[in-house]
Backbone:
């Protein structure tokens, strides 16, 4: 990795973002819907999924590709800065966690737009008029109504989620990949997607309660109301009191499935892009 430039890492991250978004977007929609709707226990995954197929728009390829470009390029530089190895090295955990605050600058905005758009599509599907025509319309509308700071609504909890997720994500991937290749002689064509899939699923399960709280904050109808009801602790207590532990893991099943598929394909696309760039150079 020390021989790889940040430009190549960025290209690899962009490729990972495109592939991961195409594969994971449908299940991400289901996850968000289950986190934000009051009747998720009555409407199962299949019913919600069928409704989404009929109603939802195109996946946000650009925003998520930019996000993954930032994540992979930042991790590569921090990995070298910490002097970490591609193994079960605790410095990989620190490098991933340090990417969190950088990543959240992008992902908080992406998250609130995505969540508001999905809820708007749900209202449209119930026969109500759509408030936003596309993502850009959503940004313009909520900024005009509530000011530019609304785009960072839920930023603190999202930053905590990113630190938790990315620390575990890269630590698990580096360690599992090394173990499968060196200890079990597994070919990289298998070890990369398997390591990436397990890393993604594990990291999502660990950080999922924080993501559920984030969705609860960013998915509120009246974003402009500055009150204690917008705070993370309030949302967490409300979920716990109304649904218990289940409330903090609402939508976890499609999320774990999505994480395994997306992360496996994401790391495969990333490593393949780096391999292709090495061949060209």
Residues:
């Amino acid at each position: 990795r020390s021989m790889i430039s940040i430009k190549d890492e960025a290209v690899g991250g962009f490729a990972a973002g495109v592939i991961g978004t195409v594969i994971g977007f449908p299940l991400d929609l289901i996850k968000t819907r289950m986190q934000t709707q009051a009747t998720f226990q009555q409407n199962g995954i299949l019913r919600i999924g069928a409704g989404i197929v009929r109603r939802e728009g195109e996946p946000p390829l650009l925003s998520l590709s930019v996000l993954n470009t930032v994540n992979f390029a930042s991790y590569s530089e921090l990995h070298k800065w910490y002097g970490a190895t591609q193994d079960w090295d605790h410095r990989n955990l620190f490098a991933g966690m340090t990417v969190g605050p950088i990543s959240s600058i992008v992902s908080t905005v992406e998250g609130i737009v995505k969540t508001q758009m999905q809820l708007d599509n749900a209202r449209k599907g119930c026969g109500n008029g759509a408030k936003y025509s596309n993502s850009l319309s959503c940004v313009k509308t909520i900024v005009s109504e509530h000011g530019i700071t609304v785009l960072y609504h839920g930023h603190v909890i999202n930053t905590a989620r990113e630190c938790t997720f990315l620390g575990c994500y890269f630590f698990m991937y580096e360690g599992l990949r090394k173990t499968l290749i060196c200890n079990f002689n597994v070919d990289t064509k298998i070890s990369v997607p398997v390591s990436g899939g397990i890393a993604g699923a594990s990291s999502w399960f660990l950080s999922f309660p924080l993501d559920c709280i984030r969705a609860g904050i960013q998915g509120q109808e009246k974003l402009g109301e500055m009150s204690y009801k917008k705070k993370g602790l309030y949302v967490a207590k409300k979920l716990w009191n109304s649904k218990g532990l289940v409330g903090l893991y609402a939508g976890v099943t499609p999320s774990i499935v999505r994480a395994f598929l997306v992360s496996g394909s994401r790391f495969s696309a990333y490593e393949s892009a780096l391999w292709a760039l090495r061949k060209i150079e």
Notes: The chain has ten helices and no strands. Residues 56 and 110 are 17 Å apart (CA to CA).
